[in-house]
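Per reviewer request, we include the raw input and output of the structure prediction for the construct analysed in the revised manuscript.
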Amino acid sequence: MSHNDDDSTRARVLDLIVEKGPVSAAQLAAVLDLTPAAVRRHITALEEAGEIQVHTAASPGKRGRGRPARHYVATRSARTTFAEGYSEIANRALSYLQQVAGDKALDSFAASRGRDLERRYMGVVEAAGKEPSERARALADALTLDGYAATIRDVGDGTYAVQLCQGHCPVRDVAGQFHTLCDAETQAFSRLLGVPVQRLATLAGGEHVCTTHIPIAMPALRKRAARAAADTRSHRPRRTEGTR
């Protein structure tokens, strides 16, 4: 393998870790059709370069016998290679806007960006139909084409909720100082998908991925409770005029 081919393969490994992380060496080998030894060589090089690190899960849960597989995520320094040199001047511009025009002007700017996102992806999402899960997948695909490295991951068996995960964010460094940008993006996603979504984690907040929780169905128990509440209201005796 030539030096250029080796660099190209290493870049593919890094791109996949950005998009899918946390991800194991075995998973990388399967997706990229590489040998485990080749993947481990690239992982070692990326670790030494400070571009990836081992992900420590918050709740490891039950483990089987043997040594648990390591899962990798991209580091902050790796993400700075994705054309983020604008961040310093963007931060200064928004700081100046806030200073001379106040918080309302900053909120208005963030809302405007949210509406731009909504207009950009509305056609793709609408073409996916009415099901929130299909709309979410269409949104993730469109975001990936724009460099967000977005994927959809099932919550449980995926019956009631999914998560939209973004491995890259073009405004991460700016949003770290101006959180209203994240809030506006979340609201835009909610309008696009037609359901109330919840942002669970952000790259701007120091996490390895932006995670948005998307409900796609109401559990049967909640449906029954809602119907029971509706029936109770419909059977309440109506007040007649003169009744106190």
